[in-house]
Write a structure and sequence with these properties.
Length: about 240
């Protein structure tokens, strides 16, 4: 870890800049987190924690993208989500006092604050606004999990791929040329959709032929959002 290229962010400023849940802290609480947290810089490919391991704290992402995934018996990844600036990760394992239920891997050079476990229950007990926002966050993630289960059962792979491309566009945005700001391998896309890599490669080629997207290596350009929405909604 190298702290030299980045100064440690102060929660009272950073939380609002990246829209993290810590913007609901009062000054004393923010000061306490500033004192006990450990600001860390991670290179691409770093594993923050592994599924099944005990963890002594949780992370608030300051910069970059972190891949959260589970590993099946065959070793295949199932990507749960991508954490971006402002997101907190590993907090559910901290709250439940259970081993990590996912693995977190740095997708692009990132920085995050590591916060010891015992502070989270304290904040939940002492700050009702923070506690309510944390409940909302848990409900949001549960809702996304329920939607994914429904999609797997009811939507075709083609429809799910269109939906994933739109969600990545919504979550991470597009650059000035309409390319997704997040760059994923075909295997990673397949691991989000829940299908074989070969199927994603074939469908991306179909989407390109239908002038829905353009491809440049890993990069994907959204050309026809309206028709992708129609496909994703099975219209």
């Amino acid at each position: 870890m190298d702290h030299s290229s980045q100064s440690v962010p102060f929660c009272e400023n950073c939380a609002f800049a990246i829209n993290s849940i810590f913007k609901f802290l009062n000054k004393d609480e923010a000061d306490k987190i500033n004192f006990i947290k450990d600001f860390r810089v991670f290179k691409k490919g770093t594993i923050l924690y592994k599924e099944g391991n005990r963890i002594s704290g949780f992370y608030c992402v300051n910069k970059g993208i972190i891949k959260i995934y589970k590993t099946g018996p065959d070793g295949k990844e199932q990507i749960i989500r991508f954490a971006k600036p402002g997101d907190i990760i590993a907090y559910r394992s901290v709250l439940s006092n259970e081993p990590a239920c996912t693995t977190a891997k740095v997708l692009e050079d990132s920085s995050a604050c590591f916060i010891p476990s015992d502070i989270l229950p304290q904040l939940v007990k002492s700050n009702p606004n923070f506690a309510l926002e944390l409940v909302k966050l848990i409900c949001q993630e549960l809702g996304e999990a329920n939607s994914y289960i429904t999609d797997i059962a009811q939507k075709t792979v083609r429809e799910r791929l269109a939906e994933v491309l739109l969600k990545l566009s919504s979550d991470f945005g597009l650059d000035e040329h309409n390319f997704l700001k997040i760059s994923l391998t075909r295997e990673e896309l397949a691991n989000i959709v829940g299908t074989a890599t070969e199927s994603v490669i074939r469908l991306l080629s179909e989407f390109k032929s239908e002038k829905l997207i353009e491809l440049s290596g890993r990069r994907i350009k959204i050309v026809n959002r309206k028709n992708l929405e129609k496909i994703s909604q099975n219209l």
